[in-house]
Amino acid sequence: MAKPAPGHAHDINGLNVVFGISAIALFLTTVWMVWDDYSREWKQYQREFVGMERSLTAQQIQDADAAVNQRELQRVETELAAAAEEVAAKSEEIRELEATLEGLNDQWTLADIEERRLKALYDSEKFFYDDGVAGKIVPFGKRIDQETFDVREAEFFGARDLRISTEFERDQVQRSIRDARARVTALNGERDALTQQATLLRRKANAIAVNVPNTFRNLPMVDFIDPSIEVQQVLVQNVTEDLNFTKVPRIDRCQTCHLGIDNPDYADAEQPFRTHPDLDLYVSGESKHPRDSFGCTSCHEGRGRSLDFVGVVHTPQNEEQEHEWVEKYDWKEDHYWDKPMYPNGMAQGGCQKCHGDQVLIPGAEEFNNSRQLYEAAGCWGCHNTVGFENRRKVGPNLEHVVAKTTPEWAARWVKDPKSFKQSTYMPRFWNLENNLDEEIGARNQTEVSAIVAYIYDKAKPLAYGVVPAGDSDRGRELVDTVGCLGCHVTEESNLAEVDWYRKRGASLAGVGTKVNREFLYNWVKDPKHYWEDTFMPDLRLTDREAADVTAYLMTLRNETFEQLPVPQIDSGALDEITLEFLRTGLPAAQAEERLGAMSSDEKTLYAGERLILRYGCFGCHDIEGFENAQKIGVDLSTWGSKMVTRLDFGYVDLPHTRQAWLENKLRDPRSYDRDKVKSPPEKLRMGYFGFNDEEINALTTKVLGQTREELPFEAQKGLSARESYAEDARRLIHEYNCRGCHIVDGFGGGIYETEVMTEDVGFRPPNLNSQGARTHAEWLFNFLKEPSEVRFWLNVRMPTFHFTDEQLNTLVQGFMAMDGTQPFKSTQAVPVDGETIRIGSQLLDRLQCERCHLAGAAGSMEASQLAPSFRLTGERLREDWLVDWMKDPQTITPGTQMPQFWPLDDDGNFITPLPDVLGGDAEAQMRAVASYLMRYSE
Amino acid sequence: MELFKNLINWASGPTVLFTLATVAFVLSLKYTQIWSKKVAYLGFVVMTAFYFLSMFDPNFYLIVAKPDNVPITFVLFLVAFFTWYSLYQGVENDKRIAVGEEVLEKQEQEKVWVWPDLVYTELLCMVLLSIGLMVWSILLDAPLEQPANPADSPNPSKAPWYFLGLQEMLVYFDPWLAGVVFPTLIVVGLMVIPYIDTNPKGNGYFTLKERKAEIAIFLYGFLILWVLLVISGTFLRGPNWNFFGPYEYWDQHRVEPLLNVNVSDFFWVQLLNRPLPSNPFLREFLGVILTVVYVGVLPVLMARPKDKLPGFLKWASLHGYYERMGSARYYVGVSLFLLMMSLPIKMYLRWAFNLKYIVAFPEIFFNI
Prior knowledge:
- The complex is a heterodimer of chains A (938) and B (368).
- Chain A is an all-alpha fold.
- Chain A has six domains: 70-194; 234-351, no CATH class; 355-377 and 638-713, no CATH class; 401-619, no CATH class; 721-818, Cytochrome Bc1 Complex, Chain D, domain 2 (Orthogonal Bundle); 834-934.
- Helix content of chain A is 48%, strand content 2%.
- In chain A, strand 5 and strand 6 (747-748) form a beta hairpin.
- In chain A, helix 2 (41-67) packs antiparallel against helix 6, helix 23 packs across helix 25 and helix 35 packs across helix 37 (922-934).
- The longest helix of chain A has 49 residues, at 146-194.
- Chain B has 368 residues and is an all-alpha fold.
- Chain B is 63% helix and 1% strand.
- Chain B has helices at 2-11, 14-30, 37-54, 58-64, 70-98, 104-107, 114-139, 164-172, 175-196, 212-235, 263-271, 280-283, 285-302, 319-325, 327-353; strands spanning 360-361, 366-367.
- In chain B, helix 8 packs across helix 10, helix 9 packs antiparallel against helix 15 (327-353) and helix 13 (285-302) crosses helix 15 (327-353).
- The longest helix of chain B is centred in the first third of the chain and has 29 residues, at 70-98.
- The two termini of chain B are 43 Å apart.
- Chains A and B meet through helix 1 of A and helix 7 of B.
């Protein structure tokens, strides 16, 4: 810069240059700022979407135009032309009427003004007149005497009459005009109705068309006034955001970008425009979870207020997607939001926030599966979990294990359960990453042996008598047919294809290697003798049947397993382990002294007890001495809200997210010990379950959904009294695995896939659809308590579950509640006469019902053609249900062979095959049959 | 490269960094020729290069590029610039005074025009600042976090950057001292400066030589005991308030031993090998004596002339100041100075001996 001129501190010309440059820079920065706002991510998406809407609407208009009934339109237009001519003929008359109407309108206007003027005066004067009459002090000049008031009143009502009479006259003239044009108006309406769809679409197309007003309102700098590109948000009153000190309604702005979410036309569009995959259940106004009441983040989580891809905390499904997102959206983990969105496919974890009480949540199959796995794998045995309190432990009671199997088998099994059977959920605790056999020598073996020794030491033997010899071939047939396969498999070669419900009982593969004959014989006869709380029912096997079944099952052996070495105690390792435990409470010298004083057996039992406490065996098994032991794992009830910073990732290279941590933990539970120096008691001890990717995904879904979030009561699924009855029953149905054999609520029927029942579907146990409406409460109660024969040709037996009265009532009430009926119903309200009964009997013959509904002796008929005898009907079935059944058997039991004798015609009326009976009234015929059946006797 | 990073990490540890900074500070006031333009250019280039090259280190980038921390980088450069500028001007003036010339400020005009000289430059500043703020707001998102969660305080929990010096003091002193007494004394101390500083030199012009003690004391308090603590608090204090070098990853799980002990422990347990007396006054007598000596006896001793002091204290004599300032100004000034110096003293005691408190009365929440 040049030297400043005299009297100045700066060179002004130089400053001018600086100012010029800064002004340009400021201008450019301002342009940049406006552009930065104009080109925000979501605005781009909205522009793109409007383009898609335009072409879609154009297409829809074409379709709508093509769909218009042209012949009908033609007709309407012709008639319209004719009608228009008629009107034209009367045009003189109409014009006159219109002139009259105009005059009347003017009159009315004047009359109305006059009436209102007088009403104002009248109202005011009435007030002061009333005051005067009541003797109050009236302001000067306001007092009204009666005479003046009466005059005013007459004036006002006169004016009102004039207005009303004008109105009356005007209406008449108007009606005349309308009548003259009535036909044209009606036809116009018809024409509009025909083209309504296209008209609406045109209106929409117009609103989003590229034109000057639409472009102008979205221009930069003016787009704050009334833009069509704007944030789309929903304010959800019921679902709140917990700000820790207060709760505020959620505001979800997801639809700002996910513009096609509620529009089924975008089912195949690219994200973010794609339609929600299940509009029947979510988002749409008619669904159970409309967007306006639930928003989006209540299920999906994420930061609903944010407007950019990273800010809403999208979570990638896998690494591949992560790379894609990083590339496309500059995606990164957001540490400043505790509730990241569930990755695609895991959103169902959120269902449990509101539907936790339900055994199976309708429409949430993925979640149901994940919760069933969580339950079956016994995760809650070590990890306290809300919703799993007071459950029976998943593993068998070990109180009498000595009567069941040998300690050698038990030691091999405990060391590596999956070497015995693939399907087990018993985890492996040894020979894992942080305690490999080859690294820590005999220690693993010794630990296993000590634990087994302790359990056997506490176990109480049972006295069994002599077991009769059985025939294994007959036994095999029994196992295949009598119903064992509803809950058990006998081989594990194709586990993946086996129905889930059939895997709920322990797999019987290798059972001959595991148990001894005496136990097995007594167990199949009466499981409760060994374990009071077992879910295994009693199939009422005779002694001979039990012997046959035992003989067969004992042939199922696992020879590879039998060859495995039995873990042995190594005295050095035992001393080491014992000393470690002693040292936790004693100084070194005293611990050594105590150790020296212990016999080898004492050491074993002491170490065994402490090891059981460390590994938490009692989480799944009842073991004497551990009745009150605390679960060893962390509480998972709110794990989904756990801070990522509180998770120890050790030296494992993983994305720092809950999801990644959990998936890795399930895959490789000890990996967070990698490269760490730890003494045995400090080591991680979660067992290895051998979960596959699908299972890991399911468990992650479940656990991530277990959050601290408390949704307001209004937002939750509250169960009505009736629904609670049904849920209580569903819990029992689930626990006792009724679905292993029956279909309940549309799920189950695991046993249907067995060989016998695929060959002839008639051997399948019945579908329990409409069970509550079908049977009498009394009969159902007694049947569940002590099953009696209904379908004589079935080999599969309804087991005796030894339910308590409380459980039986729960089931009966629950079945009734599921079908919306009550336990007791009055018998037929309409008195039945002998004639009806006679007709019913006649119909039964004519329809040949008893060809299939046999009382016994199937003869040459196949099982699928057989039906229960009518002898039981009155005692067992409800009359109303019988009519429903005759009306539509396929809906109640899909696939049944029962013919629909009274089919429906196109208008939904029943067609009778016998028009000569009861005047051809199908409904009355069905009633007659039902009435007869209720009184049926041979 | 790793070696260099490791070296920098080591040098950023509290002890080394603080000592290096103090030594550099003392040297820079002794060898004033370093306050030259050349050194300034060099310093700027080195600092910028250090920053630029370090940005390639992911851990360095992670912390420095946090939107919260960006202003601290500005602070770093701005403080360096203004310190240099004042001292450079001071040194220049000192040279002129030495040869009997007028100081630089005398050559400037006394009066300028409101328009255009003042208003025009103000407008320019406004325009340039607007550009700066707009660009900043476009490029860096506001560092907003999620709603506060009482169940999960952030780790590290940091005060706003301008309070990080105070927060650093909390490491060494009890909250009532670091959070109440010291901040109050800082404000009061700054207010009384005009009343205890009677040196008339340096009015209206920069100088170093004529006000060396005053400048040294102020700059030590400001640069070393405040700005340095702010910067290290921002960039070097990580989770659990542990120290992390600029190239180290802030590992939540890193563990530092916390074995701090009190003077009473030193005296009773380590020296006399016996348990602490149950009487708190007996227990703490040594600490109380030390404190009383430091705040009560030391100023009095330091006021005495050199020849009346025992040999080991001769260097600390401030008799000249006592004479010049008068007893009231002297005692106020020295007390404030000693309190200021208690911070580095306590810091070094902590680093050297893991000293926690000199006086500890947890019974009444009174700890020094």
